[in-house]
Amino acid sequence: MVEKVLSLGFSGIEAGYLLSEEAVAGIVRSRDTVDFSVSSVHAFSPIPFGAPYGYPELYALASTDEDEQAMAIIHLSKTLETAVRLNAPKVVYHAGRISFRRFGFRYRSRLNELMPGHDSYEKTLRLERGIRSKSSLKYIDALSRGLEKLLPRFEKEHVVLCLENLPSFEAIPNAEEFVLLHSRFQPLHYWHDIGHATVRGNYRWDDPIETGKRLLPFTGGIHIHDVCGLDEDHCAPGKGMVDFEAYRFYADDSAIAKVFEPKTSVSESELKVSLDFLSELWSIT
Fold it and tell me: Please, what CATH class does the domain formed by 2-98+134-281 belong to?
């Protein structure tokens, strides 16, 4: 797997949440013979024991259920161990989602009468923002309690925990919530997924470029993929609607990990074209 990634022109990998313990061990062994970097590890890695498959939201640190949060802490700690084994400086994590009775907004918005820009959509958006704001407080408090337990472990191992933005209205933290969390937890960093941010922008939840610039001082890395249509993300960069020129501000910061995250249907040739496209656009050698 590593050799295939390198053959496409990339210099390293992000260890993903679909890796078994055997696969992680294989990547560790490969470092003896292959020169590559591991920019980050995406939680949870390896796949939690007993789970039928890997999924980044198996356990939410922001959960108000103490048992679920305990499981999130256990498996984030195991992901931290993986990062140490791979000498990866960052862990990427989906913190959780708000559960509120009226939610269904994103899917209702697919209806013609609720498409972005329509008066009925804007009215619904204002209503849902209010509900979300009131509902989010207990989840942010739960997330804070989890971070209090976890972050000292990450600091001890010199690994940065990064919370990723997600393409759903109920996902936390949003930009405002992240600023609040960072004021409480200075070691905590943000991970800007460009495709996810674009979907959020398409639904008018927030501005993707503005969010990226606002949180740039706390950003540990970015996921790079394109968006085709309203919310079909993880397309090959350069094939969709993302204005990658507007994201040039990421290119000049070598401390920010830059990770391609295409869907499995993207071909090797498309990936090579996308890498060349972005390298030239951002003047990366």
Answer: alpha beta
